[in-house]
Amino acid sequence: MPALALRLQAPERLIDIAHIPDLRGIDLRDGWLRLGALTRHAEAHDHPLIAAHAPLLALAAPHVAHPAIRNRGTLGGSVALADPASEFPAMMLAMGAEMEIAGLQGTRRVPADEFFQDLYQTALEPGELLVALHVPAAGPQHRCAFDEIARRRGDYALVGCGVMLTAPAREVESARIAFFSVGPTPIRALAAEAALTGRRLDGEAIRLAQAALSQDLDPPDDEQVPAAMRLHLARVLIGRLLGRIAEGP
Amino acid sequence: MPVAITLTVNGETLTRLVEPRETLADFLRRDLELTGTHTGCEMGVCGACLVMLDGLPAHACLMFAVQADGTRVETVEGLTGSAALADLQRAFHERNALQCGFCTPGMLISAEGLLARKAMPSREEIRDALSGNYCRCTGYEAIVDAIETVARRRAAGEAALPFAEEPA
Ligand SMILES: Cc1cc2nc3c(=O)[nH]c(=O)nc-3n(C[C@H](O)[C@H](O)[C@H](O)COP(=O)(O)OP(=O)(O)OC[C@H]3O[C@@H](n4cnc5c(N)ncnc54)[C@H](O)[C@@H]3O)c2cc1C
Ligand code: FES
Ligand code: FES
């Protein structure tokens, strides 16, 4: 909508999807949480099923824009837009979510790892609609943390990150880590994930994950901060998040 | 081609023809002459255009009027008429929480939205709720004070006195 207000975009046709009931609803079925594309940011903030089974969304929501924007903005809109500085697309990646897409040919499900392709570029083809986001429901064996570094509250982050560990005991069984604001798309930190897998989450593991980030991230220089500082901030951030999980309850 | 919409604005249900390209902010200001809804940035950043949409704060600059079909919109004028904001307005006045007043309608809507969600917010939470409202005059401190005062007064059950301009 800001792009329309600023006349950056002038589509010939604009379709209001707000009244399509199939795009609404939040349900838990067979270990997956289905979030209709029209789920509002404010619901990510408040909904008990999201708090219980997609806690990364609940943790990220207060950082997305401002309260009045969260009353209107939708998860589907945020994910379809795929702004590289956006919180929710990166959380889809961290959670291993799948996007349900409908087109004239029927519906298909695309994993987050294949959905975000390039700057504002997703697996959505012209004429296709994002119907729902399917999130593997988190349980007690999962530990997660989210944070971002921004100049002011509500601003887009300089660096942000969501971490999702499967760690039923002391050892990390598997890890998914996704960064945003560090490149053209949300980016998974595969080397950092590998550094943590099969280890106890202690100071040494955290240092290894921090070191691994130089293989995962290659942030651009831009007018806000130089690349080296962004990488440094990413290291600081992942250290904080893993530390928070290690100390956790 | 103009489209007919029916919506309730400040308690009154009306049907109007609007151009699909017209924003809700422009509709309120130009068609209904409710100029208390201000437009600053027209891109969702400054918060001057906030209205209550079905009871929740929303940016009138980020919606087309056609999208408001079937909704209930309250502007600062309506909320003043119904005295819903009277205690906030009084506290803003007492604390000099406005100078030019351009941001004030949006500030009042954000404040009302916050207090509806959370009766006794901390100063930190008040600041967070106002993070999408720009004020170029006051430096925010007085606005946070005024909202904090109203939260306390409402918790103490103090009825809102009708707000009226004090005699000079
Ligand atoms: C002042 C301001 C600050 C913001 N700050 C942040 C921030 O800090 N972090 C953040 O992540 N976001 C931020 N946003 C973005 C905001 O949170 C919304 O995510 C974004 O504006 C999308 O809004 P929407 O859901 O109304 O989608 P729309 O604006 O309606 O749509 C966005 C795009 O996605 C397409 N689209 C929408 N839904 C679908 C669907 N179901 N299927 C296919 N395509 C679809 C539309 O065609 C359009 O191209 C900010 C926005 C503003 C105005
Ligand atoms: S005019 Fe709507 S936010 Fe600035
Ligand atoms: S009082 Fe002038 S902008 Fe706030």
From TrEMBL, chain A:
Pfam families, alphabetized: CO_deh_flav_C (PF03450), FAD_binding_5 (PF00941)
Keyword Oxidoreductase part of the UniProt annotation: yes
Protein keywords: FAD, Flavoprotein, Oxidoreductase
GO molecular function: anaerobic carbon-monoxide dehydrogenase activity; FAD binding
InterPro entries, per the entry: CO_DH_flav_C (IPR005107), CO_DH_flav_C_dom_sf (IPR036683), Diverse_Substr_Oxidored (IPR051312), FAD-bd_PCMH (IPR016166), FAD-bd_PCMH-like_sf (IPR036318), FAD-bd_PCMH_sub2 (IPR016169), Mopterin_DH_FAD-bd (IPR002346)
Transmembrane intervals: none
EC number: 1.2.7.4
SUPFAM superfamilies for the chain: CO dehydrogenase flavoprotein C-terminal domain-like (SSF55447), FAD-binding/transporter-associated domain-like (SSF56176)
Highest taxon listed in the record's lineage: Bacteria
Name of the protein: Carbon-monoxide dehydrogenase medium subunit
Organism, as annotated: Chelatococcus caeni
Lineage per the UniProt record: Bacteria, Pseudomonadati, Pseudomonadota, Alphaproteobacteria, Hyphomicrobiales
